[in-house]
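note to self: dont lose this again. the chain is below, predicted strucutre after it. 159 aa total, dont forget to put it in the shared folder this time
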Amino acid sequence: MRIPTTLKHKPVIVSENYENIDGRKAYSTDAKGLSLGLAQWNERGKVDISAKVWRYTGEKWSRQSEELPMHRVLDLAILILRSSAYFSEAYRYPKLYDREEATIDRVGVQGDAMEVAVCTDNPMIDEDIKLFAQALNEDGELLGERFRILSRLLKDMGY
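---
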């Protein structure tokens, strides 16, 4: 399925077969494509680029398609990677976290830091963190493959 080029987000680089590799929903997802392009919120004289997940309902392109600035996509990748590393050692805590010290890490970014922490404000955190850890474990192969690809690409780029 071809990603539309007549909407506000202007695709430049596309992956139009994303539905074939969308994790556990591969071949049965409404996420049909990914694109990197000119952001829909651009103002005259200012150009931002963004990443977009294109959803298709079977009849039309969905308003639930998501567009994110590229730095946020990378920030999400950092959060996923750091969380995954945390959960590989979280078994050491009886509840998979330390209620007294919920901060997992502070990742330096732009002269400050992205705090990564367990959300202890969640009243169901004890149950939810177990479900999250279980899902992360079940998706280990899917995520691990992508982590290895990211690692290889970053090494190839000199990072």
